[in-house]
Amino acid sequence: MQPGNVTNSKKKEDPAVTNFREYVKIKTVHPDPDYDGAIKFLERMAKELELPFKCIEVHPGKPVGIITWKGKNPSLPSLMLNSHMDVVPVFQEHWKCDAFEAKKMDNGDIYGRGTQDMKSVTIQYIEAVRRLKSKEEKLLRNIYITFMPNEETDSIGMSLFIKRPEFEEMNVGYVLDEGLANPDDVFTVFYGERTIWQLNVICSGDPGHGSRFIENTAAEKLRKVINSFLSFREEQKKELETNQKLKIGDVTTVNLTKVEGGIAHNVVPVNFTASFDIRISPTVNLQEFEDKIKGWCKNAGDAVTCEFVVQCKVNNTTSINPSNPWWNAFSNACKEMKMQMEPAICPASTDCNHLRI
Fold this sequence. Notes:
By secondary structure, this protein is an alpha+beta fold. The chain folds into two domains: 11-178, Zn peptidases (Aminopeptidase); 195-311, Alpha-Beta Plaits (2-Layer Sandwich), CATH 3.30.70.360. Helices cover 31% and strands 26% of the residues. It has helices spanning 15-25, 35-49, 115-134, 156-161, 165-170, 218-242, 286-299, 325-336, and strands at residues 53-59, 62-69, 78-84, 103-104, 110-111, 143-148, 172-176, 186-193, 195-204, 208-209, 253-261, 267-268, 271-280, 304-311, 340-346. A five-stranded mixed β-sheet has the order 1-2-6-3-7. A four-stranded antiparallel β-sheet has the order 11-13-9-14, with helices on one face. β1 and β2 (62-69) form a beta hairpin.
């Protein structure tokens, strides 16, 4: 075979995959995410789409990026395609390659922090618009592709952005955000999410030397508190295991995540603190659940107090009733493409929690 006839044995990588891998390589990892690098990349994507890009710093060092595709009737409520730029920390020793190499394996799998949560979705939005524009499609409504900081920590990006005039001007009617990877051909669609509460229970008691039976100790109260929380956890776990119709998003999870206290092995301390992470099902009355927690603390004894670190007061869901025109349009489009959908409650928390009304 002549040199000029030699064909490339390796198929050229799709530009969408190349962009995806480049985005994964940007270390937007906590505690010091490279938002500047992400914003520069996304601004370049907007230029390739020939669409305007805006960057708004909602908090020092916390930028929000927006790509705008104007529709034929901008007065109509718009569609917001949201994703977050940040990713959670990495334990590199547990990875088979560098977590920010975006290495492609021989079978096409791509490894990297943020591949699923949620940089792949970001690129899907961008590439969907790219393909529509290449066909010279012109949509009826404005489309906004938004990129948020700090979703993985305090959600400060979205919580502050929705208070800005720029968000008000977007006149958002419907939002698509992140989900979970699906192992089969059934696509999980989240129409709600569990409410996150994180709290500390401080148990105070009488101190003394470790060689004596001290009465009214912080440890005794701590045991009662932990028993109450974990007994409720066991109830919810059994409910999930015995009812096949339920998924994890339909029950409330409680986990003891930290215990602090004590100064020496032979000293009974004044205080012990237990920290809990709670994800509350949308079916739960939040006020009643708060009263339940306060009751557990009261039953543990005197000088037992509860302080909330995170206490979201919203547990709304999006209507998936056919009367909701937005859901109707989305679900019908999926049916036309013969996509199987499974509506569910997201077990974790996303930026959408700030947007549901």
